Amino acid sequence: MKNKEIKILLSAPRGFCAGVERAIEIVEKALVKYGAPVYVRHEIVHNKFVVDNLKKKGAVFVEELEEIKDKTRPVIFSAHGVPKKIPLDAKNYKMTYVDATCPLVSKVHREAENLNKSGYHLILIGHENHPEVIGTMGQLPKGSIDLIQDENEAKNYKFEKNKELAFVTQTTLSVDDTKDIIQILKRRFPKIREPLKEDICYATTNRQMAVKNIAKNCDMFFVIGSRNSSNSVRLVEVAKKSGCINSQLIHSKSEIPYDLIENSNTIGVSSGASAPEILVENFIENLKKKFKVSIDEVEIIKEDVVFKVPKKLN
Ligand code: SF4
Fold first, then answer.
1. 146 SS3 class
2. CA 148 – CA 168 distance, rounded (Å)
3. High-pLDDT (> 90) share of the chain, %
């Protein structure tokens, strides 16, 4: 195997986005400011490596506030955002909380809220049960926002209320699939109001564009990221749709398919917005143990977005 030459096309941008960097920094700074334990409601970002590292530093992950026995300890809300009820519950428990919701998710929350106040009935395009979707739906009173997950649901959506329609989207969807869903909605409801600025975030868009750019030149494509990471899973779909059908996710329990890689000449590598670069480096190091590896990084755009952490942590 060692003589086999493999070319890696390394997709860029990849990995951590500004929202993920900020969320991790919030937990780290909270640990310094308040000491351990600091509670985090839900995985701060969807990556086991990140979560395990923060656990070692004293973060304790829970799914609901009710699980926290010592309510004198601070709690952090994850980057995906939370329903309106959660900060209210924390206030009622007299808990100190820090909201690590990505500012680009908060933007969608405010957008949905303003449209609702202006009398619109909302559609959220997104995936059921994803925490971001639960958080966005939870900004509005029940019955004033409906979820549409795919083209089929857009085709069959029934709306007879005496109200105008508007839509918002999850930030980590497939850009192309979402366009198709929006087209159907616009055809069926020509007056539907759309967001002033697209809700799918810059990081999701850039990572998908970068993968699209190289996938057709790859025999196999690997996306480093967790199974519950929406944008990582979307990157695998994008690679498949863009011409590399042998595309797969490399998550914490994945075995690297060396046999298949041996039959490839060029492989593509990217990583989801919540996957640290060390995991990409480890993956490439493992390949180097088996093959003669050359790396060509293909960058389509430079990112310089930075989000500040809340002032109370400085
Ligand atoms: S993927 Fe986008 S919305 Fe999600 S945390 Fe990153 S920048 Fe924010």
1. strand
2. 10
3. 95
* Statement: the pTM of the whole predicted model exceeds 0.90: yes
Arithmetic mean of pLDDT, 160-174? 91
Torsion of Cα atoms, 195 then 196 then 202 then 206, to 10°: 90
One-letter identity of residue 155 = K
Ligand 1 lined by 17 (C-beta under 6 Å) = yes
Q: Assess whether pLDDT exceeds 70 at residue 1.
A: no
Taken in order of first residue, the domains within the chain and their CATH numbers are 5-16+202-299 (3.40.1010.20), 18-102 (3.40.50.11270), 104-200 (3.40.1010.20)
d(CA 277, CA 284): 11
Round to whole Å and give the CA distance between 210 and 208. Answer: 5
Whether residue 133 has its Cβ less than 6 Å from ligand 1: no
Please tell me if the CB atom of residue 172 comes closer than 6 angstroms to any atom of ligand 1.
yes
Which atom of ligand 1 is closest in space to residue 23's alpha carbon? 5
pLDDT tens-digit readout, 40-92:
999 999 999 999 999 999 999 999 999 999 999 999 999 999 999 999 999 99
Nearest-atom number in ligand 1 for the CA of 201 is: 2
Q: Is 195 exposed, middle or buried (0-12, 13-18, 19+ CB in 10 A)?
A: middle
